[in-house]
Amino acid sequence: MTRPLPMVVPPTGLPARVTIYEVGPRDGLQNESAIVPVEVKAEFVRRLVDAGLPIVEATSFVHPKWVPQLADAADLAARLDLEGAVPLPVLVPNERGLDRALEAGSKHIAIFGSATQTFAERNLNSDLETQFAMFEPVVSRALAEGLDVRAYVSMCFGDPWEGAVPIDQVVRVGKRLLDLGASQLSIGDTIGVATAGHVGALIDAFGSAGVDVDRLAMHFHDTYGQALANAYAALGKGITTFDASAGGLGGCPYAKSATGNLATEDLVWMLDGLGIEHGVDLDAMVEASAWMAKHLGRPSPSAVVRALADRATD
Amino acid sequence: MTRPLPMVVPPTGLPARVTIYEVGPRDGLQNESAIVPVEVKAEFVRRLVDAGLPIVEATSFVHPKWVPQLADAADLAARLDLEGAVPLPVLVPNERGLDRALEAGSKHIAIFGSATQTFAERNLNSDLETQFAMFEPVVSRALAEGLDVRAYVSMCFGDPWEGAVPIDQVVRVGKRLLDLGASQLSIGDTIGVATAGHVGALIDAFGSAGVDVDRLAMHFHDTYGQALANAYAALGKGITTFDASAGGLGGCPYAKSATGNLATEDLVWMLDGLGIEHGVDLDAMVEASAWMAKHLGRPSPSAVVRALADRATD
Questions:
Q1: Residue A300 near chain B (CB below 8 Å)
Q2: CATH of domain A29-312
Q3: A200 close contact with B: CB closer than 8 A
Q4: For the domain bounded by B19-312, which CATH number is listed?
């Protein structure tokens, strides 16, 4: 038997090509309990680039007190090719983080806002309205230095304290982050409560507010098993950038279960079946994720990685 | 914090109500390595009925040599209310199985055909063409006895030996099973290789061949993480019956990974968010599946069960 493959049957009305924005090394590893050695992280990023991913978020210049898993950000950045053809963005929480990113030679940064008051208070030590004043100097300095800026907005579908989040509130926050000068807005379902209809309605609302769908990325978590169905619904609304995490690494510390990000491999499998181009070599991805799962000492949460890595060891 | 809930946002064009056909006690447990005591199975079926499931496939009258997990079928049937308001179908592989089902007092049976030659040879000891002759006396006798008959057709998207399965071949086999007198055809992705576009194309092909969509059920496995996305695609094609397995119990013995059926709870979560009625109490389902996971001595494969059962024990 050869490796199983999905039959390619493209439905009508979906994009011909999408960009997978890989978040495993940052969003994935920051939510794993294990501390991964910096040389393993550097090798992981190189393997992901070699697998054909067009962009790989490498780390975060957040204070090590908050995210000890990424305390080696400067050391990791020094080991990576930040001038290479594949952008390796880093998250910066504030001006101090931007200083460190600039010192490291980063060309692409991401900021991380909140769609809800409570998460802005708890995670950003800020406020739904005052967060923009906090990000403004970060973005304007970054742009002046010639950097590209992506904005994340988290808790876009539900919040563990506030429950369901009003769609117009998410659109308002997202637009303000874009207006600061971000080139792309990543719409995050941080606690994984989105379902397909809600996803479609939120994308439609951004469209009605004048935001081009090409500036939106979707960032799904699989806490309730919905991530890939939500991605399919988003494809139907014309979304062409999807955040995904190699091997399904990570998970939101505020969610009660251990389930993490949408797995890159499960997304790639679906895109392959839909005939949508993405440029990623699935076998190389599975190998990289199975290798990282061994370093973490547990099976990959990705169904595709489990199925195909099992196969490889038959 | 109260239990998280998806925000209800119904997209246009989906069915208002669906039937969840629960397969956990049969398709789930027959693919678990553990042998579950008959009294635990009976309690499990009762809990699933109490959770509001409209139909629960209870067991299979297959020869115990092939499926030792279900060797207690007659004993289990004797402990269940086969005359109750909720149908409790049983799988019957052949005339001997039908005899046993009739002795047990079953009112609803299911037969299990193959869309491919190789699986018909290996699983049915038959043939793609001769399987119908094998099923004909089973179905005609069952109908004469006043029983309702469902037909499964397996390997509808891919087969581990033959690869991708031609859509017209699946439609031809499925139609012949319906023509024997089955009231419903359950279209099975036995090895989990279906993707959303393939699902839609197969449903469309049945429609073009004159089969009413109301006679079709979809049966997805999550081997490559696609089950729920495929269910969402099938909803968009008007499918109103979905097979699902409590807690994601089971798995195909021919697939290399351990991932099993679409989890009932993950489907219920999506349907709740889509505003589609189904009649199932999610909390009662999670409780029943967490209880069974304890009997099996391992965590539930269902993301919803893991997330909500973790919560309950905080």
A1: no
A2: 3.20.20.70
A3: yes
A4: 3.20.20.70
